[in-house]
């Protein structure tokens, strides 16, 4: 009797563990899937019943139409959840026994994210499953050479809009992917142009140039090809706007750091 009781306890323990594992596996799978919404298209396959195979679109009310059943509310459900719902309806209405249903997403129009700014392909991209910031940037063709290293993510929580800035270069260099945020539907990702600085006066190539991190005045001059025969490093000047937007002229040294939108002026040598 004791042996039977112990076996029963073991079977019950195994049953609960298996149930817990399956439940968590289903939840984990759902978390990786995108939820469906109006405008999305799905394909539904029923094994052994090709007459029930159909492709349908979620209407504005969040419903799809399925043979023998009619309208089914799927708004806010993942494809896996839709599979289980169709199976339950087919069985509960005595239409099929032990049906095997597979639902695939053919088009996601309800779960979209917008990418603007200095990327190769601006536009709206579907969120299929879990997608991070870098995934979407890759889908948009990557950041252009003139694009900046700081990306802005704008999203709504339903009540207000929030803005986050993510330093992609720092994230990669530090191997800290905490900033590689999971994107959500209706997010806006904006890649600004990289900061610039300007050189004019007695240099080989006056003009506008990309400002690299911690770039010094002497490094900036080298980007412009260096001084021409008339130029001198003495009396270097930088035109820079202060916190109030007022333009001021500062004396500059070769090892001073350049700031965004600085204008470096190289004077002509007297001798």
**pLDDT average, as an integer?**
86
Question: What structural category arises from helix and sheet content?
Answer: alpha+beta
The major sheet is characterized as:
5 strands, mixed
Using only CA atoms, what is the Rg? Answer: 30 Å
In which range does the helix fraction lie?
10-25%
- Stated plainly, the CATH topology of the largest domain is called Outer membrane lipoprotein wza fold like
Q: How many domains would you count in the coordinates? A: 3
Low-confidence stretches: 1-31
Total number of strands:
15
CATH level 1 class label of the largest domain: Alpha Beta
CATH superfamily of the largest domain: Outer membrane lipoprotein wza domain like
Q: At CATH's second level, what is the architecture of the largest domain? A: Roll
Give the overall shape, derived from the CA principal axes: rod-shaped
**Spatial ordering of strands, largest sheet:** 7-6-10-8-9
What's the helix count? 5
How far is the first residue's CA from the last residue's CA?
111 Å
The proportion of residues in beta strands is: 25-35%
């Amino acid at each position: 009797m004791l042996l039977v009781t112990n076996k029963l306890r073991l079977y019950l323990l195994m049953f609960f563990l298996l149930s817990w594992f399956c439940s968590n596996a289903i939840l984990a799978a759902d978390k990786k899937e995108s939820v469906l919404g109006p405008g999305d298209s799905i394909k539904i396959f029923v094994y052994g019943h090709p007459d029930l195979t159909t492709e349908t679109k979620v209407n504005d009310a969040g419903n799809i139409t399925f043979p023998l059943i009619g309208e089914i509310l799927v708004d806010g459900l993942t494809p896996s959840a839709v599979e289980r719902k169709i199976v339950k309806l087919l069985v509960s209405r005595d239409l099929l026994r032990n049906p095997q249903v597979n639902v695939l997403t053919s088009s996601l129009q309800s779960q979209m994210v917008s990418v603007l700014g200095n990327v190769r392909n601006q536009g709206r991209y579907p969120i299929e499953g879990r997608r991070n910031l870098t995934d979407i940037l890759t889908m948009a063709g990557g950041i252009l050479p003139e694009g900046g290293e700081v990306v802005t993510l704008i999203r709504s929580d339903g009540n207000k809009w929030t803005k986050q800035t993510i330093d992609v270069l720092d994230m990669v260099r530090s191997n800290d992917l905490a900033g590689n945020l999971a994107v959500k539907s209706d997010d806006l990702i904006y890649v600004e142009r990289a900061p610039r600085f300007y050189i004019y006066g007695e240099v080989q190539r006056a003009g506008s140039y990309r400002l690299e991190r911690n770039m010094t005045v002497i490094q900036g001059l080298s980007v412009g090809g260096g001084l021409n025969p008339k130029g001198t490093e003495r009396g270097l000047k930088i035109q820079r706007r202060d916190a109030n937007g007022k333009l001021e002229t500062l004396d500059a040294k070769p090892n001073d750091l350049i700031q965004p939108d600085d204008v470096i002026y190289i004077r002509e040598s007297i001798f």
